[in-house]
Task: inverse folding
């Protein structure tokens, strides 16, 4: 097991009617900026619950955060927060809203000329507004981590950034808020969670037995619960399990003491930037092809994945890996996800653009930091 330091200060408030707890969680002496997306919270009761809980607070609103939140939109939020002298940010939505809120929190107090430097040049975040989250779409785990991903329309970029100062003070998770979600968003969330786990699990073995079992338990829970959605067994407990899986998948716990990959995300982000495809759909396309390309370097973990997650006990290692990858693709397909570029009518002409951009990035992607342009090209050609 590798050395690690673990710290996570986020207070989790989980369960029915938990949005009412905002009254005690949000500071009364600061002006609050409520940040949300396209307005779905006004149709599923979340907005009313938040406004009721914050009836004694001074609240301004900023809406319009899009999927794959744009820098251009976030900067309008930064300007509003400065003008209104906001002291606390409250994100209400899924990962995109939470990521945008984290960027706004850091950008409001950024001392330089261009807050985009925090993303592109990894300029240090030295101060940030405090923030909290009300999660309505379980997927990214942003509610308990320091990560965010921001896109910029003018340059067709989608880039992650992070800072220890961007841990939310609290996050509220009420599984009942997920009952109004469309099937596509639910599927996206499950695949996003699944891939988050795999990016930390399917690398190389460092004898971190507990972390392996924790990762496998999340994957098995997703596989068990996902088919129940919108069926006769779909109930509060199904939604609660899926929501908690998403949080546990990326709260920095699984990455303790183990190597991590994140190359599926690096390639997937470029697919989204160039082709405007849903984040999770890009991941579903890239990951099977990437695992196949890296099968020999990841063989120990892929065989463990085959045996423990998919119950495959084939003595032929290559065949066991083949079967595990087929099971993974079938799981994604059963959720209605594309698993090939052609499924989304993405042309081969985008491959060299993605490969070139990733090949110029330092460090390179992958747990060995060696996925150069040639390897990225081979992966995406396999995914056609």
Result:
């Amino acid at each position: 097991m590798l050395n690690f330091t673990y710290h996570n200060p986020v207070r989790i408030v989980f369960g029915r009617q938990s949005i009412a707890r905002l009254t005690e969680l949000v500071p009364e002496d600061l002006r609050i900026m409520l940040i949300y997306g396209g307005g779905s919270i006004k149709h599923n009761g979340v907005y009313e619950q938040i406004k009721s809980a914050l009836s004694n607070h001074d609240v301004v609103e900023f809406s319009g955060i899009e999927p794959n939140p744009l820098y251009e939109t976030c900067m309008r939020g930064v300007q509003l927060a400065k003008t209104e002298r906001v002291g606390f940010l409250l994100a209400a939505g899924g990962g995109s809203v939470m990521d945008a809120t984290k960027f706004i929190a850091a950008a409001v107090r950024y001392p330089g000329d261009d807050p985009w430097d925090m993303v592109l040049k990894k300029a240090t975040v030295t101060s940030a507004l405090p923030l909290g989250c009300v999660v309505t779409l379980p997927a990214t785990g942003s509610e308990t981590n320091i990560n965010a991903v921001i896109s910029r329309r003018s340059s067709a970029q989608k880039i992650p950034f992070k800072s220890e100062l961007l841990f939310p003070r609290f996050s509220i998770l009420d599984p009942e808020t997920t009952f109004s979600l469309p099937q596509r968003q639910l599927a996206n969330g499950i695949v996003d969670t699944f891939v988050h786990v795999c990016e930390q699990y399917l690398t190389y073995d460092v004898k971190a037995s507990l972390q392996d079992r924790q990762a496998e338990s999340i994957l098995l829970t997703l596989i068990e619960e996902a088919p129940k959605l919108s069926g006769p067994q779909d109930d509060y407990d199904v939604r609660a399990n899926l929501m908690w899986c998403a949080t546990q998948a990326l709260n920095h716990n699984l990455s303790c003491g183990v190597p991590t990959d994140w190359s599926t995300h690096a390639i997937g982000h470029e697919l989204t930037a160039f082709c405007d495809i849903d984040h999770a759909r890009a991941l579903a396309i890239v990951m099977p092809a990437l695992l196949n390309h890296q099968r020999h370097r990841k063989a120990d973990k892929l065989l463990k994945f085959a045996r423990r997650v998919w119950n495959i006990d084939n003595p032929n290692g290559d065949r066991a890996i083949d079967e595990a990858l087929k099971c993974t693709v079938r799981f994604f397909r059963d959720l209605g996800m594309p698993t090939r570029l052609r499924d989304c009518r993405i042309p081969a002409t985008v491959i060299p653009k993605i490969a070139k951009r990733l090949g110029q990035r330092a460090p390179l992607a992958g747990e060995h930091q060696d996925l150069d342009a040639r390897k990225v090209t081979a992966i995406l050609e396999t995914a056609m």
The beta strands are 11-14, 32-35, 59-62, 88-93, 131-135, 147-152, 157-162, 170-173.
